[in-house]
Amino acid sequence: MIQSRSRPAARYGTAFAAALMVLTGCSSGTSGLRSVSAAGTSTRAPSPAPLAWSACGKNLECATIKVPQEYTDPEGAQIPLAVMRHRATDPGHRIGSLIFNPGGPGVSATETLRNLPKTAGTPGAFSPAVLARFDVIAMDPRGVGESQAVRCLTDEQRAEAAGTDFDPAIPGGKPLPQLLADAATFTDGCAKHQSKSFLASLSTDNVARDIDQVRSALGEDKITYYGLSYGTVVGPMYATLFPDRVRQMVLDAPVDTNQWFGNSLPFQNDVAVSSERTLDAWFKTCRSEGTAVCPFGAGDPEAAFDTLIDTLEAKPLKIAPAEGATQGGEFDGAMALETTRALAGDQNVWPLLTSALLAAEKGDGALLSTLWSSITVSPFPVPTAMFETHTAVRCADWKTPSGIAAHKAAATKATAEAKRIGTRAAYSALNCARWPAPNKDRVTKPLTGSGAPPALVVAGRLDPVTPHHWAENMTRTLDSAVLLTREGVGHGSYGINSCVNKAVDAALLHGTHPADGTVCKTDTPATTRPFVPAKR
């Protein structure tokens, strides 16, 4: 029996309620998507043609669907979106289509699906039972991956950004005038590389409408949905706009959707504090294990870490050239801090972090340097292409203050409440503050999913990106939801915890949920014990 929290239906303003009515006007798998124009007249997006699939990998098929750039102008500019399908391995017992969004925003869903066989034991890895019963559908959201990925920097600018020196003692890593100049370069580049109308269309409500176009093209009356991280914004948006088209929904590592569409500065502060807590958890575990197990810092890992960062910043370690390269590089304190922040957020890789810190303390930065070059963890600035798409999507959704005074106050708060991580989070919304393509018609009302089946909300107790209280808030906001908590440190729970795996599989396959408030235990974190993926 499904146990859920039910609440009275949310009351929206007249205009928003009308928009929901026209957007959810038809439920047939072959019907068109109704919308409303800026002038208030009703229009209808043409029903998409069935997808023309072609083989693109083992058990994989690829297709392209064209959707309106703006649903208020369904006959206007169109955007091609990349779609990939992993066919159900037991087609005789197929349930339907499962659409998933792996988060970011900016993570390519098609690339994630292509690499699925390589990702067992990582968040979002579907079980063999789910892969047997569902066609798993990946759609790269507009502006992401193969769906016209946003470009804001030239190759030369990207290379320059990758070689930029940051100072971990300065909020934002650079003096504020330089951060402002960087934001101008970035946002001007975004407007140069693609139209402002395209940038303004990248909002989550449009992504949800795109998903419904895919649903229609698949010939499905309803979809099953799994979203991770930012995917938990897309899911409730879809359930709010199209509640009668949801079969089941699982939201893993949830974002507080009320905060997502609100002031972005408190949102960013919550993330910084959450990340700081996971680093503190590593320090606490190292101390409790004793020096025989965790020798880093000789009993005082916090002091040793701060000293290491200062030492590396004053005198970076020389890194030998990689195979095939003509020269090596340097590894400084800012790079060590960013690497540690990312690794501390996943207790399964703590042994790797411990080894890397011990080696760096002894003057060998090779392992830390290798790890640094491979990490890309939002929402903090990193010199990668994904950061460009990540920024564009959040700027289309967020309500970011334009005045620099608000950002200064937020930077002060972040560095006070997260003394190590806060310096890297400070001023991280400057690009959105001067975003050149404001989205004037984004949906910002509470995403209640009223009328959709109960959602399973899965949250980690110590998540470095989406704090647990966000999951609590989401469960209260959704009209009907069940909260499942996984103990321990990490971002995302499905695929790494056997208790969570069982609950998510039951929800996706059978629509059954655990009791609201159920807690899944996890292995006691350790700083040196090797990680063994959870068994299915």
Structural summary, described in words:
The chain is built from 20 helices and 15 strands. It is α/β, with parallel strands linked by helices and 536 residues long. The chain folds into 2 domains: 5-148 and 199-262 and 443-520, Alpha/Beta hydrolase fold, catalytic domain (Rossmann fold, 3-Layer(aba) Sandwich); 155-182 and 265-398 and 401-434, no CATH class. The strands form 3 sheets. Strands 1, 4, 5, 6, 7, 8, 9, 10, 13, 14 and 15 form an 11-stranded mixed beta sheet that branches. A two-stranded antiparallel sheet has the order 2-3. Strand 4 (54-57) and strand 5 (60-68) form a beta hairpin. It is globular and about 60 Å long.
CATH topology of the largest domain: Rossmann fold
Query: What about the largest sheet?
Result: 11 strands, mixed
Number of helices: 20
**What is the molecular shape?**
globular
CATH class of the largest domain: Alpha Beta
- Total strand count, please? 15
Distance between the termini: 23 Å
What would you call the structural class? alpha/beta
Question: Which second-level CATH architecture of the largest domain applies?
Answer: 3-Layer(aba) Sandwich
Radius of gyration, CA atoms, in whole angstroms: 23 Å
**Low-confidence stretches at least 5 residues in length (pLDDT < 50)?**
1-43, 376-383
**Overall number of structural domains:** 2
